[in-house]
Write a structure and sequence with these properties.
Layout: H1 6-10, H2 16-39, H3 52-63, H4 65-80, H5 95-99, H6 104-121, H7 129-155, H8 157-164, H9 169-191
Helix pairs in contact: 2-3, 2-4, 3-4, 3-6, 3-7, 3-9, 4-6, 6-7, 7-8, 7-9
Amino acid sequence: MTASTLTQTIWPTQTPIGRTARAAILALAGTALLTLSAKIQIPFWPVPMTMQTFVVLVLGMAYGWKLGAATMLLYLAEGAIGLPVFAGTPERGIGLAYMAGPTGGYLAGFVLGAALCGWLAEKGWDRSWWRTAIAMSAGHVLILLLGFLWLASLVGAAKAFSVGVAPFYAATVAKTALAVVALPLAWKLLNKPAATPSKG
């Protein structure tokens, strides 16, 4: 059984043209949000963090697996043609050369992480705090795993773990906790009955 996603509930549409327009608008909005999240660094320990993996996985859960993955692919396509949408661009390069560098595995992980979280959301996993925690954790693990494997092929496993995984434990926990609060709360607000007008 497939449950409605947050975006389908907030923006219902029944026609094929309406669904196509909704998907296009949400995908473009999603890539804009991903770009913004890549550019803003938040002071954190042990390293500054961006909110990008949070945005990746929450978009996946809010959009569903197909639109979530498609949005990530559109984002990667924007970067591949040279738009400065990734963290550190254009200062550290742009286009395919940047994508083949140390962050390439994480970028690929965005697609799979969003798809996994979107698939779980379509099973209703974004409506309770503990299932949201599991879904977000699984998405983060997938992104970090692909990032680690790609980075290990470039610099070796030990260094890849020390610079590409270990510094991000605390930020991953913080972003997962934020999603645990935000997603079930959004559903609670959407499902809250409208107040009955007073007859006085």
